[in-house]
Amino acid sequence: RLIKNRGIVSRATEELQLDAVAAIRLEQSFMGRLLNYGRVVVTGRGERTISLPALLVDPVRLRQHLQNA
Known about the structure:
Elements: E1 2-6, E2 12-16, E3 21-27, H1 30-35, E4 37-44, E5 49-51, E6 56-57, H2 59-68
């Protein structure tokens, strides 16, 4: 499962089963490529989308792990 938790005082959780992943998109600017940060956007079946934070460290590695899972 891919689980995204947000919030300190109040909590919001998004969850997506890995077998329901339809697409994984990597977004990196030029500076992001130089400094190895970016955003990973995961789209599931039924148009459900989870956007991970824009300042994610090593997004290429995360994308590879998600693709292999």
